[in-house]
Amino acid sequence: MSDLILVLLLVVLLVCLIVTVGGFLLYSGLLCDVIIKTGPPPVKSVTIAYKFREGSYKDCGAAYTESCSIGPQLSTVGVFYDDPKQRPAEKCRYVVGSVLCEGEEKPDEELQKMYEKFGFKVFSLPEVSHAVTTSFPCSTPLSHVLGPYRVYPRLASYIEERKLCAFPTIEICSSDVINYMVPLSRQTDFFVPEMKEEVTTDVKEEDSDEDRGTDITGADSHSDVSSVSGGVPWDSRETSLAASTAASLASSLPLRDVMDANEDIKHRDNSERGSNESMGSGSSFEELDMDQEEQEAGEEREEKGDGEEAEVPEGEDGARAAVELVAEKKEPLGEGEE
């Protein structure tokens, strides 16, 4: 009989223990509904005292404990920059610290000096208008353990399904709630100076790796680059030729009309100039004859005059008259010279 009572007592105690543990887990947020949304985050710009760490996120508890020991009344903050699935756990980078003030408020100087004394640095996280946000109740110390297991998988699936560019992940834990936010804009403004240096170093290492890869590949990579670089001028040359050809074709018709008109005018001018030159050449020969033989020049002029009246058109009478006047003017000049 006594054995049966002992067994019943053990069962009752076990049931009570299970109920207590279950109730504690439920109160800590085990079955809390996690609602993820996109919009303005509940936390605006904040000024934090932080320490930069590199390593597994599971080891961040010590930094949280140190931060809370300095300012137990302050909200804690964590900024996690890397995805453990894409970067080795020992190389993940994060920031842990306390929130000194929010918005336009100024931090307490004595408290800030206290944090700086223990090696913390001060940094301001900006305010963003759009972010992926959610919250988790912070009712017990166990909430800090249950929160990541409940929130992060849903955050990752939400961002992946909608193909959002969201990083880094920020946790701000107050006395009753843990706010999670992943900014959709101004992401690099959440990088502390140490993180910016890390990123710069990574970029330089990647560039050096690419340079070494180019050197190792040798002639193959060089030939690829040369073939691509050679194609660009060829394409540009074809474009310039096509443009010049189109311009010449567009302007060929009006230019041809103008050139034909100019050729007609030049042809008429040349024909008139040729007739004038032929008359001028005849008159010059007559002048030479008159200078050599003055007496014979008069008879030749009369004979030529009779012949030219029969053969030369009436339009050349003015030219012959001009030649006779020139000859008469030259005769006295010649006598004066003698």
TrEMBL record:
<dbReference type="InterPro" id="IPR011256">
    <property type="entry name" value="Reg_factor_effector_dom_sf"/>
</dbReference>
<feature type="compositionally biased region" description="Acidic residues">
    <location>
        <begin position="286"/>
        <end position="316"/>
    </location>
</feature>
<feature type="compositionally biased region" description="Low complexity">
    <location>
        <begin position="218"/>
        <end position="239"/>
    </location>
</feature>
<feature type="compositionally biased region" description="Basic and acidic residues">
    <location>
        <begin position="326"/>
        <end position="338"/>
    </location>
</feature>
<protein>
    <recommendedName>
        <fullName>Testis expressed 264, ER-phagy receptor a</fullName>
    </recommendedName>
</protein>
<dbReference type="GO" id="GO:0005789">
    <property type="term" value="C:endoplasmic reticulum membrane"/>
</dbReference>
<dbReference type="GO" id="GO:0005657">
    <property type="term" value="C:replication fork"/>
</dbReference>
<dbReference type="GO" id="GO:0061709">
    <property type="term" value="P:reticulophagy"/>
</dbReference>
<dbReference type="GO" id="GO:0000421">
    <property type="term" value="C:autophagosome membrane"/>
</dbReference>
<feature type="compositionally biased region" description="Basic and acidic residues">
    <location>
        <begin position="265"/>
        <end position="275"/>
    </location>
</feature>
<dbReference type="GO" id="GO:0106300">
    <property type="term" value="P:protein-DNA covalent cross-linking repair"/>
</dbReference>
<dbReference type="GO" id="GO:0005634">
    <property type="term" value="C:nucleus"/>
</dbReference>
<feature type="region of interest" description="Disordered">
    <location>
        <begin position="197"/>
        <end position="239"/>
    </location>
</feature>
<feature type="region of interest" description="Disordered">
    <location>
        <begin position="265"/>
        <end position="338"/>
    </location>
</feature>
